[in-house]
Amino acid sequence: MESEQQANIAYILAANPAAILSLIAELEQVKKDAERYQWLRKSHHDDDSAIGVTREHMNGWGRVVGKSLRNSDLDKAIDAAIAKEQS
């Protein structure tokens, strides 16, 4: 019984508001990353517009002819391409 109480106390302490808010923020980031991934991998049967739009946005920043690309720049390029496609 005492170990169950200790386990309950540990659980309650771990579920403090700061920890919950941190988990929510992490979940939102993971959801955004999943959205980017799904957008990148979706099929464009008649063309390569997803790749083309991404390259258009990455031109000058990205791994176009061997330049390195920072992840934050890639995220911005994909987000811009998604927004353009949705408009």
What structural keywords apply?
about 90 residues, mainly alpha, 4 helices
Query: What is the CA-based Rg, rounded?
Result: 21 Å
Q: In percent, how much strand structure appears in the residues?
A: under 5%
Helix proportion range: over 70%
Low-confidence stretches: 60-66
Query: Tally of extended strands?
Result: 0
Number of domains: 2
Number of helices: 4
The largest pleated sheet is described as:
none
- Helix-strand string: HHHH
Provide a descriptive summary of the structure in words.
74% of the residues lie in helices and 0% in strands. The chain has 87 residues and is mostly helical. It folds into two domains: 1-41; 44-87, no CATH class. The longest helix is centred in the middle third of the chain and has 25 residues, at 17-41.
